[in-house]
Amino acid sequence: MNKAIKSLIMLFMILCTATVSYSAEKNVLLKTTRTWDNAKYKKLKIKKPEVTVLKIIIDVNEELPMHKHDLVNVAYVKKGTLTVVTDNHKKITLHEGEALPELIGKYHYGKNTGNEPVELVVFYIGEKGTPLSVNK
Fold first, then answer.
1. Taking a C-beta distance cutoff of 8 angstroms, is the pair 66, 136 a contact?
2. Sign of dihedral through CA atoms 34, 26, 132, 42?
3. How confident is the model at residue 102 (pLDDT cuts 50, 70, 90)?
């Protein structure tokens, strides 16, 4: 066996046995196949995908208008307490550090039910040009 092949084998063995260490921490905040009301996600057929990330701040006692989303989106509560209510009065309350798989095609609204502004980071994915929300 020539010297170059032996060197490559040795390098491969070193790379395979090397331990990679890093200090980054990761936590799964949400992994789901359903929205928060237990509706299954349908097969996504997106020809021209578009991702949008919004930061939304809702003041104390503020209530957003009744609306729906026709695309997949997930809200992360960075700060505060948010209650989401459907048009048939089903509700869920979220607190700082929680993530919500939003409803698709169902009317609902969000309300700040805490004593400080709610700060949300919302991730949307859908067909390019699809409105992020549609008011009732």
1. yes
2. negative
3. very high
- Tokens at residue 111, please? 């309300």
Over range 69-95, report the average pLDDT: 97
Condensed to tens digits (0 to 9), the pLDDT of residues 10-58 reads 666 666 666 667 788 888 889 999 999 999 988 888 899 999 999 999 9
Residue 80 burial by CB count (10 A; 0-12/13-18/19+): exposed, middle or buried? buried
Strand partners, 109: 85
| Measured distance CA(43)–CA(31) in Å, rounded | 16
* Residue type at position 121: V
Cβ neighbours around 10 below 10 Å, total: 10
CATH topology of domain 31-135: Jelly Rolls (2.60.120)
Q: How many CB atoms lie within 10 A of CB 85?
A: 18
Query: Which amino acid is residue 89, in one-letter code?
Result: H
The distance of Cα 60 from the centroid of its chain, to the nearest Å, equals 23
- Which stretches within the chain are classed as H helix? 3-17
- Regarding predicted confidence, which is higher, 108 or 45? 108
